[in-house]
Design goal:
The chain is of the alpha+beta class and 354 residues long. It has 2 domains: 231 residues, Aminopeptidase (3-Layer(aba) Sandwich); 91 residues, Peptidase M42, domain 2 (Elongation Factor Tu (Ef-tu), domain 3, Beta Barrel), CATH 2.40.30. The longest helix is centred in the C-terminal third of the chain and has 17 residues. It contains 8 helices and 17 strands.
Amino acid sequence: MRRSRLNTELLQSLTQVPGIASREDRVRDRVLQELRPHVDSIEVDVLGNVLGTLGSGGPTIMLSAHMDEIGFLVRHIDDHGFLRLQPVGGFDPSVLPAQRVQIHTRSGALVPGVLQLAAKPVHLQTAEDRKEPKIENLFVDIGMDAEAVRDTVTVGDMVTLDRPFQVIGDTVVSKALDDRLGLYVMIEAIKASSPSHATIVAVASTQEEVGLRGAATAAFAVQPDVAIALDVTIPGDIPGTPPELAISTLRHGVAIKMFDSSHLPHPLLIKHLRDIATAHDIPHQFEVLPRGGTDAGAMQVSRSGAAAATLSIPTRYVHTVNEMACQSDIDASVMLLARYLDEAGTRSYAYSPG
């Protein structure tokens, strides 16, 4: 078994800084700190995307991993001081009741709270009372009376799920592995590569969870020839998932995406990635995702288009506070991207005119 080379300190720091779509400031600061020493130039655009450029000449290769995590905004404070929420990103309401959250106030204070379902206490419920939870029936209790709540919290304040990073077995578990894992892979691959035939633009994108917005504007500016998104994907290796519906499997390596609902990866780019993985004995698997997408969907169709693909890290329990990924799969993702960057610009993905 290969020993993991995981930079646990970096990954933990990336997952623990909060940042929902449009509020990625603290994540951006961490990315800038880590990426700046390893690129030739770095900038932040009007949507808050970080663009770090390495090398010059040859084709332009754009990498993209998104900074935003799913979360909420405070949309209403009721007369009893309970907070009602506007989701920013997609949630399964069934995993939310009884979770802890953090409210990030306008003053910079961090206020803990409990996310609960508006319902009778379980001891008082009848069978008719037990219904599937809905987002609109959730509220946050921050343990203050209404006056104190209104003095502390404002409509529009960011709310994030509260759960620490932890190593469990040969996995890591945390909130926001989607997509701080992608950021981690991008940063570590740039450190481990020596590109010489292309211009590499590493983008930490904003607002992916609400429509690939940051990647769309960044790609319009960068005009990439090749675009690679770095994101998580869904495994099918847990109870309740039939084998024929499995998307990926933990401990089987980096997933090279073959299909999702946002883009069809470029066949020649996929072949290049597959050839590199085989040549360097990098564990890999192939992913077909019936629903869902990545930044590659926006990059592929920007301006005159780009040869696009996605490298995915298999991650259990996506969009919960207990997202889980295997350390060896993360290492494989870093290795494949780094070795690709070494060769970037050495192959053409142009279709023959016949």
